[in-house]
Structure formats: structure tokens, C-alpha cells
Amino acid sequence: GSTERWTGVKGSNLSSAIVIAVGDPNSGVHEYLKDRILNGAVIKGNVVPCTTSSDVMTAVKEHPNAIGFVSLAWLAHMPEQLRVLEIGDPAYRRDSTVTELEYFTPHQAHIYRKYYPLSRTIYLYALNIGKGPGLGFMSFAASSDGQKIIVSNGLVPATMPVRLVQLNTP
User: Fold this and answer.
1) Sheet with 46-50, side-by-side order of all strands
2) What is the pTM of this model?
3) How high is the pLDDT of residue 110?
């Protein structure tokens, strides 16, 4: 929240003001940024208020000096002109041999291993105890079929084992 111009961002070749595209204050992404990143402070500066995640991506596409925040599931719908920023946690090192800050994309494996620093847990709560649609939905979400839907939307499954595949590249 303290850097207002791109000149204050290492590696940036822009000199303009940073524009932030984010959903309205009642959106989950907006609340996450405010509570977990800005420690409860209001998002300030050059903010482009957006109604939907699609609007966030459109705003970033139209403003070359903008950065937008959307949930992981929206990255599958991202226009080709945009790119996902790799980010890193200054307090995190994968092992003791790493001396530089490492940057990671919001990939399921990086989130699962806690390499990617921006993540949140999704909870399901039911008001009534017993049979009903709420319990049925929660049972389905925790089932194998429900977890497959979660994985196919780019999220990390909670009740299924995560299989990490390492590709050997030349």
C-alpha cells in the first residue's frame, strides 16, 4: 500500500502511477486484500472499482499501468494480452540453499506446498443439523466427484490426495 508509482517496483520499466483494479468492497478478493495484505487498511490510490472479475481483467487490459486481482478460477478465462505475476514471500525459503527471493505463480502445486503466499481456505458451514440440501451439497463437495470439480477449476482439493508430477525438461 505504500508504493504508488511503478518506479518503486524492482524490475518495472513503467514510470506511471500504479492503477489497482479490484472488485467492490463486498467481494471476497477485495476483503482478502484489505484484511490479509493491507492489515485492515482501506485499499487506496488509483483504484478502478470493478463489478465483476471479468471487469477487472478488462480494466487491466485497457490500462497498461494497472494490476488486477481476481480469484484463481478466473485465470483460465484470462485474455492472452494479460499475464499472471509471479510473487514471493520474503520470509519464505524452500530450503536452506536458496539465497534469493523465489517467485511463484498461483499454480495448484505451489499453493499446496505453500510456496505461493496468497491463498485462503474455503469453509462450508451448515446451519441446520440433519438431512437437507445443505448437507447434501457439503457431502458432494467433499466426495471424489466434487473434488474433481474443484481441481478442474484450478483450486486445491481438501479431501483428495494431491499428486504432484515433475516433468523432466531438457
Assistant:
1) 46-50, 19-23, 66-68
2) 0.73
3) 83
Q: Give the long-range contacts of residues 165-168, CB within 8 A, separation 24 or more.
A: none
Q: CA 18 to CA 59: how far, in whole Å?
A: 13
C-alpha distances (whole Å) from 121 to each of 99, 112, 117 are 29, 11, 13
pLDDT tens by residue, 114-147? 888 888 888 888 777 677 888 888 889 889 899 8
What the block records as the C-alpha cell of 148 is: 474433481
**CA 170 – CA 168 distance, rounded (Å):** 7
Looking at residue 80, its pLDDT comes to: 86
Distance between start and end Cα atoms, the chain: 41
Averaged pLDDT of the chain: 82
